[in-house]
Amino acid sequence: MKKPLVGALFAVLLLGAGVAPATASTGHEAAAPSTVKEKARPKAVNFAGTVALSNCSGSVVRTPDSQPDDPALVLSNGHCMETGFPGPGEVVFDQPSTRSFTLLNASGSGVGTLRASKIAYGTMTDTDISVYELTSTYAEIEGDYGIKALELNTAHPVQGTAITVVSGYWKRTYSCNVDGFVYRLKEGEWTWKDSVRYTSACQTIGGTSGSPVIDNATGKVVAVNNTGNEDGQECTDNNPCEVDEDGNVTVREGINYAQETYGIVPCIGTGNKFDLDRAGCALPKP
User: Fold this and answer.
1) Cβ atoms of 65 and 59 closer than 8 Å
2) N or C end of the chain, less CB within 10 A?
3) DSSP secondary-structure letter at 21?
4) Which pLDDT value is given to residue 43?
């Protein structure tokens, strides 16, 4: 797991505390003829809607059906919960929490503090996610800070997609592509299903755990950053290995991974409440 402070301070001194968000090419291009309609270009990914936790990164998220007056949700990793790493098979569900989050604006500046009312859902089984319900609604957050929640994509990510990992903890972004998908990603005691593997350009560090992985073309969240193989070891803590359908193990030193988030959407019903019995919900149950 991408723990917050293991080697992170050294890395930030070496690399600098801020990296500009991904932008379109700055090269000079010939203007298109007036008779040709120019294609819409995706907006540059920024920090608006991301949050900094005490030990990780996260983001304020919504489903396509979330309403302005629903309590807002914050997405991070299961291993980022203040209750500690949940064991294999363990699910944290509807548990009180008063955790605070620093909300960031587009430039990465902290503009306010959000507070949780509970951990709506958290696990490290099959996936590595935590979802906090806040005391504030989406409308209140937008009204107070002018910031909208990031929307969770409803479809499986696509190989080759250009993505940006946005860390509220470090106020840094990492741009790369979806390299592929891992049948089983095993790290120590934990096993995750159908994980996203990044191309090598996304060299995420400790503290980036829980960062939203954003599709550059749509601006929607397709995954949540969670781990990487640091030392080339096989299936140990901080050194996840890939296991295919036949049980073959592959180690990719220096490669980082995320957990898909489209499967969260079917589990959230009216009022932004988790309902693990809803049709299409396949998240592990307590």
Assistant:
1) no
2) C
3) P
4) 63
- The owner of tokens 């290995």 is 241
Which tokens sit at 25?
């090419």
> Residue 42's pLDDT is what?
56
Phi, psi of 9 (to 5 degrees): -65, -45
- Phi-psi domain of 226 (left: phi exceeds 0; alpha: psi -120 through 50; beta: other): alpha
pTM listed for this prediction: 0.87
* pLDDT for residue 14 is more than 60: no
Q: How far is CA 83 from CA 80, 113, 199, 220, in A?
A: 8, 20, 32, 29
How far apart are the C-alpha atoms of 6 and 4, rounded to whole Å? 6
Nearest Cα neighbor of 224 from 46, 59, 22, 89 is: 59
> Alpha helices, DSSP H only, in the chain?
8-15, 138-145
Contact indicator for 197, 170 with CB cutoff of 8 Å: no
User: How do 57-62 and 150-151 pair as beta strands?
Assistant: parallel
* pLDDT average, residue stretch 35-57: 75
Closest CA to 272 of 284, 264, 262, 283: 264
pLDDT band at residue 1 under the 50/70/90 scheme: confident
The pLDDT tens digits for 98-108 are: 999 999 999 99
